Amino acid sequence: MSRTPEPGRRTIGLVLMKSEEAQATVHYVAEECPQIRVQDRDTFFLLEAEESIRIPLAEVEEYLGKPLTMSRFLVCMTSYYGRAQVEDDAFVITSDMSQLEPAKI
């Protein structure tokens, strides 16, 4: 039986393979981002939210106790759903589809 999505729902998600980087991310999210739901799925963590998730690497480093590069973070990130964007200091997933919105004049 298929489920019809709720109108206007903008859930996005991020899957992190269990590692010290993922655990540090989960600790950061638990303390700093109450809008992000975290599920422990035995071998991975599932993070979900409505509209956006932003993981600032410098803040996760504080929980990790050592430097965290974007490439190292991306190794533990196994999957996502939403629109991914890599910024200088953060990994972002959003539900925005700005390229499909009419141009603002």
Automatic annotation (TrEMBL):
Organism in which the protein naturally occurs: Rhodococcus aetherivorans
Protein name: Methane monooxygenase regulatory protein B
Annotated InterPro entries: MOase_MmoB_DmpM (IPR003454), mOase_MmoB_DmpM_sf (IPR036889)
Annotated transmembrane regions: none
GO molecular function, one term: monooxygenase activity
Family: Belongs to the TmoD/XamoD family.
Record's keyword terms, sorted: Monooxygenase, Oxidoreductase
Source taxon at top rank: Bacteria
